[in-house]
Amino acid sequence: MIQQELMNDLKLRWGRMQQAMQQMGADGCLLAGGINLYYTTGQMYSGYFYLPAEGSPRFFIKRPNGCEGEGVTYIRKPEQMPELFAAEGLPMPEKLLLEADELSYNDYTRLQAIFQPKETGNATTLMRRLREIKTPYEISQFRLSAERHAQTYAEIPACFRPGMTDLELQYEVEKRMRQNGSLGLFRAFGPNMDIFMGSILAGENAETPSPFDFALGGGGMDASCPLGANGTRLKEGTAVMIDMAGNYTAYITDMTRVFAVGKLPELAYRAHQTALAIQHEIEQTARPGTPCAELYNLAMAFTEKAGLSAYFMGTKQQAKFVGHGIGLQINELPVLMPRSKELLEPNMVFALEPKYVIPGIGAVGIENSFLVTEKGLEKLTHFNEEIIQLS
Amino acid sequence: MIQQELMNDLKLRWGRMQQAMQQMGADGCLLAGGINLYYTTGQMYSGYFYLPAEGSPRFFIKRPNGCEGEGVTYIRKPEQMPELFAAEGLPMPEKLLLEADELSYNDYTRLQAIFQPKETGNATTLMRRLREIKTPYEISQFRLSAERHAQTYAEIPACFRPGMTDLELQYEVEKRMRQNGSLGLFRAFGPNMDIFMGSILAGENAETPSPFDFALGGGGMDASCPLGANGTRLKEGTAVMIDMAGNYTAYITDMTRVFAVGKLPELAYRAHQTALAIQHEIEQTARPGTPCAELYNLAMAFTEKAGLSAYFMGTKQQAKFVGHGIGLQINELPVLMPRSKELLEPNMVFALEPKYVIPGIGAVGIENSFLVTEKGLEKLTHFNEEIIQLS
């Protein structure tokens, strides 16, 4: 069921988990969140994944869905796990890791009551740190997503008709995303980060701040999802920033391009060129060991020198980051922000997104997904980076 | 910002919350989950809603997004709340309700440490129970969703082209959903319930069990989202069950119709008629006071009498419910299942979905959204209920 390439990759991930667990003195890690289950098993299921600090993993599955093999046990409820551990001679963990930032309070305390560990550590912290360094299989999935993402962006000019709204344009783009293989789902870490397939920002709507941790905002269609396109008419002189998700595999690439209806004011073109210059400088200089904070500071320095500080990452509210890790979720580690203590490491994958909001016009700038290699950065998302004329 | 009709409705909701809190001896309820924030404030924001058992609500908001007015305070972090309570002479709750099934373990314990209540109760249980009985404004939103949902279903035959796959059909339906106002997001209670805009099941794929709490399954496009359409070719003799979300407002209607490519085997038509007969009987007999378990038992009795037990709600795995509450999430209370202790009450809104999976052919049956009135059931989702011929 799982091909050999993925199986080898899963074993690599388990090895990294066990190494980290041994270093932190943890005896076992029990995962129940969908994203971590997928990361550790290559599948989504209802149940648990248990990895002891030494030895082979166990898969406890609540509903039959074709999973069979070594280590797989079907259970009705988590309370059965201790007796199954005992039956297999698997020691109960004294220090157990549970997903403290992902499990609900009730689910977490239920598992604590079942395992009664002397100490409980945070599996969310561990898994987010491990997932930050991508494996060969994961990188291959990013490359597939990036290629299809770029293919969809190439089809955007054909989606445009004069007089349409941002939402009408988005519906056309969404359909092409799906036809090019988008899974549709937009997965984020943390609560209240709902957005539908991505964001198109045009005109005044680009200034509307996001109530959540997104780089930019937009008012959205409805108070129940206050983000992105809001029905703005794409009239002459409007910048249209398109930041739709690259979810063509489970690994999400992030990519933004700007389109123009008619001619934009000079400020918009100048800000766009500043964003490209920031990207160019970071592409030339960033390598393993570069502090993530330095990338933000570099972007700020270019911005200040260009006199564009009032527009950088928003106007009314300005996001305090210029990029972020990507993976199974859109907001993985590292975060390119001034207070980051992290250094770039090989096989991190992140989105770099210097953007400017031009009041009344829209947003300009660039976003691409980059892989950190031993030598520096490799861009994954290739497509025309200038402001693209729509009419 | 919030129109008067919604404001009056919010006050009704707050009144119900306070009545329930007084009955259970709770002093205050602090909500942070997006769905409950939207329910209590009509908006999504990053922050908290606090309602004391007596007195007026407070809104603690982390990011400016245009919310102003009585009771609104901006905060950087939840640790500021006690001093703000003190400044306003608002007593700290001795018994505090927190969302134990929605907040992460870390978020919940952080709030507990801030408020240090003598006792903590479960706000998730309270809110799910209150949200089960819909208010006038909520019912008006369901009616809007239902109308647009039916309008989209009327456009489905025009989406079909001979030789297409279930996914190709779904992309066309998705676009029409969006054009008719779908917000896109599919919101569910509980972890790992991701699905993208709904489900189309055809042919053998209808038998694939769901790893999660959905009525039916389907293999999906990818292991990272194992649900729904999987690329099945819609060939002659295939039943195509379309169960796409009715998220045209924040309130989701649920509605399923079956389409046929060519002629189906007799068993499929007979099972479909049995589903319609179940629905008809329930429409005629259900009223406030009817046990939810009785609706399931009635469906099972009709099914057994028709000799269709092996096909009811799946084959390899059979869902043990025949309907469920709907609202801001697709899986609200009540659940129409044999072990339910609940009785129907006026202003509940639920989906009734007797369905049969016919091996190799697909799924048949019906799903509509119903409002419980003083007199009985009112169907919200009106559209041709027979198997609709596609070619």
Report on the structure:
Two copies of one chain form a homodimer. Chain A has ten helices and 17 strands. Chain A is α+β, with helices and mostly antiparallel strands and 391 residues long. Chain A folds into two domains: 127 residues, Creatinase/prolidase N-terminal domain (Creatine Amidinohydrolase, Chain A, domain 1); 254 residues, Creatine Amidinohydrolase, CATH 3.90.230.10. Chain A starts with a helix and ends with a strand.
| Residue windows where pLDDT falls under 50 for at least 5 positions of chain A | none
How are helices and strands ordered from N to C of chain A?
A: HEHEEEHEHEHHHHEEEHHEEEEEEEE
- Name the overall outline of chain A: elongated
Q: Tell me the distance between the termini of chain A.
A: 49 Å
Query: What composes the largest sheet of chain A?
Result: 6 strands, mixed
The residue fraction in helices of chain A comes out at 25-40%
Q: Please, how many domains of chain A?
A: 2
Assigned CATH superfamily of the largest domain in chain A: Creatinase/methionine aminopeptidase superfamily
Strand arrangement, major sheet of chain A? 4-3-2-1-5-6
Structural class determined from secondary elements of chain A: alpha+beta
Strand content of chain A: 15-25%
Number of beta-strand segments of chain A? 17
Give the mean pLDDT of chain A: 96
**How large, in whole angstroms, is the Cα Rg of chain A?**
22 Å
